[in-house]
Amino acid sequence: MMLIYPAHAAESLEFNKVVQLLKQKCRTDAARERVESLRFHTRLEYVERALQQTYEYTSIVRTGNTFPNDFITNLEKELKLLAVPGAVLSGLDLLSFQKLALTIRDILTWFKNHDTLYPHLRELTEKIIYEKQISSIIGAVIDDLGHVRDNASRELMSIRADLSSKRNELRKLFEGVLRKLNKQGYLADIAEGFLNGRRVVAVFAEHKRIVKGILHGESDSQRTVFIEPEETIETNNEVASLERAEAREIQRILAQTTASLSAYQPLLLSYYELCGLFDFIQAKALLAADMNAEMPRLSPHPHIELVKAYHPLLLLHNRLNNKPVIPLNIKLDRTQRILIISGPNAGGKTVSMKTVGLLQLMTQAGLLIPCSPDSEIGIFKQLMIHIGDTQSIEHELSTYSAHLRDMKYFMDFANGKTLFFIDELGSGSDPNLGGAFAEAIVEELAKRHALGIITTHYLNLKVMAGKVQGIVNGAMAFDEDKLEPLYQLNIGKPGSSYTFAIAQRSGLSPDVINRARQLTERGHFKLDKMLHQTEQQSQKLANKEKELDKLLKKNKDLEKEFETLIDKEKKEQHFNTLRLQNKIKKEELDYLRDMERKFKQIIFDWKKAENKGEVIAAAENVLFKRKQVASNAAIAKKADKNYDTVGGEAKVGDMVRNKDNHQVGRLTEIRGKKAIVQIGQMPFNVSLDEWIVVKKKEQPAKQKTKKKQA
To answer: Which of 214, 245, 363, 549 is the most buried (most CB within 10 A)?
Structure first.
């Protein structure tokens, strides 16, 4: 077990409040007893097993699966009685044991159906065997309401049959007496009742000597007497006798059943403990779900690396009030053993320190913690704290004396497996002397390789990070513009106490603040001011980094969007190219099919025609068109080589190209939709919409040089 100093250390870290929340999640007394006996374990395998069990149950809760652990009855006393020879359990007690056995059956069946999904929970049931005989023994004599069955024995069946018959007989007799007395006017308003286990009639007191029977009592006003009628006395006696016989037989059956069940007492005890254990694990899982807790990585070496960690109680409190909680990132290991946190009062120094301590205790107690699963927690053998006012009236110790007493204990027993927390080290004494002692204490703890967190306002402790190996600074951020803390821990730099800024926020007189500045030692004030300026610059830099990150992210998003558009454009171009190629191929195919059809017609006409010359002329016409198409294609190729298409509205003087035969000429005159185009030396009247504007391509320099040489 972890050694804790002082004895109330866990309460100082508010672990007791977590325990109370956990108890509220328990349904059984057995689980609540386990919560009250929680310990902080130092064996890695135990801590890991407890965390894995809780983590697996948490996954059951989060997935909405139902685990069949519904047994919540406290059977501790009954289990002890079951081990006592001659003890007799009631029908309800026996029914509870039957339900316990059936619950274990359902749990084992559940694990069988879920096979290897929950290995650490399943491990708890490996030595448990369901004995169906337990349920059979109880079910044979006890019904679902906890009553002994009629057929539990032949004797009981006979007794109850006779008892039922006698009760019917008694009922008829009594109803006859009531009718007779009612006619005679002797009955009181309530007519009948039960006294001393006997059915009686209520008669007016003045008629008590007229009605024959046994007087069992009278009302408070003495106006009514209760008489057992003479006609029913014998039958009532028989019913009472049968009821006593029934009770004796029931007692015998219960004693016999209890004796039969006593052989399974150890097994039933293991069933009960298992149900309590599963309820305890379920409580831990439900609490973890409330806290959004995760399972950190575990290490046998004493170190801490918390990523996005939260104080569990603060997280729950702020969630109820719709307030945000700033996550904590902190690391303590061999290279940075001691973290010295500075910053303004009420800025979150103590909360940050308590967060680390509480999460460490929760982990070593087997509880999941609210942090990122990337966090890693090591195992510590000792935990020492000094938080708050520790003065002792009983031992006549001042605050500072109590402080030194704790520091002595720390330095006497701290080692490489110790985790310590000191709030306001050196406070309660002269600032200069207290600061000197504080520095000496930190040096000694560093020599002992202990890991821990110290909060302070002393400037000499803030500058130790550069002098003593293993010490690192941390600062609580403060917004000087708004004059309010940000509750954010920044590792690697010391922080200002913002004494004057906080004094200004509190409304203190400016004259008093300025006078305090004058009285402050120049070197001290200068260093605090420098820390102040450094922290503010760091915050501005952090804000700029956030803005830069946003811009970089936006740039990446735009880059992805641009790449998507480029890909889309490439695909569109590729699609258009394929579509154009398909169109050209289709046109060629249509042309060839048309030519094939025409040639077939020519051959058919040739065979039938008497005038062969006409058929030959038709064939030449088809062939000529084909040659014309080929010629046009050659002209088009030459035109594409020498001219670029400009398009737009044609003007006099422009070079133009025919859309069909691809001839190129110069536009010399426009006459509405008609125009004159000169090709070579010949002018032609043309339709202007059949021509497009082109421009002669410039020849490369090499070709011009060759032409000149030639």
So the answer is: 363
Q: Using alpha carbons only, how large is the chain's radius of gyration in Å? A: 50
How many Cβ atoms sit within 10 Å of the Cβ of residue 528?
22
Coil/strand/helix, residue 2: coil
Residue-by-residue DSSP string for 537-589: HHHHHHHHHHHHHHHHHHHHHHHHHHHHHHHHHHHHHHHHHHHHHHHHHHHHH
Q: Which of 47, 29, 95 is nearest to 275 (CA)?
A: 29
CB 53 within 8 A of CB 281: yes
Closest CA to 139 of 154, 127, 151, 122: 151
Do 386 and 408 form a contact (C-beta atoms < 8 A)? no
Q: Which pLDDT score is estimated for 288?
A: 96
Strand order in the sheet with 682-687: 643-645, 691-696, 655-658, 664-671, 674-679, 682-687
For 198, the enclosing helix (H) or strand (E) is strand 198-204
What is d(CA 593, CA 589) in angstroms, rounded to the nearest whole number?
6
pTM of the predicted protein model: 0.68
Task: Say which range, 108-117, 121-130, 362-371, has the weakest mean pLDDT.
Answer: 108-117
Farthest-apart Cα atoms in the chain, separation: 164
User: Residue 622 forms beta bridges with which residues?
Assistant: none
Q: Which residues neighbour 399 within 8 Å (Cβ) at sequence distance 6 or greater?
A: 389, 390, 391, 427, 428
Please name the amino acid found at residue 188: A
What is the spatial distance between Cα 608 and Cα 601, in angstroms, rounded to a whole number? 11
| Encoded tokens for 213 | 């029977």
Sign, Cα dihedral of 296, 302, 308, 313: positive
**Token pair for 221:** 């006003």
Q: Are 330 and 376 in contact, with CB atoms under 8 Å apart? A: no
Write out the two tokens for 55.
């983590």
Distance of CA 619 to the CA centre of its chain: 86
| 5: phi then psi, degrees, rounded to nearest 5 | -135, 135
DSSP string across 371-435: S-TT-EEE--SEEEEE-S---BTTTTB-HHHHHHHHHHHHHHH--TTEEEEESSTTTTS-HHHHH
> Which residue type is seen at 320?
L
pLDDT digits (tens, 9 = 90+) for 257-269: 999 999 999 999 9
| pLDDT score recorded for residue 314 | 93
Listed in sequence order, the residues at least 6 apart from 178 whose beta carbon sits closer than 8 Å to its beta carbon are 187, 191, 192, 201
Is 121 within 8 Å of 67 (Cβ atoms)?
no
pLDDT score of 553: 77
Helices (H), 63-131: 76-82, 91-114, 119-123
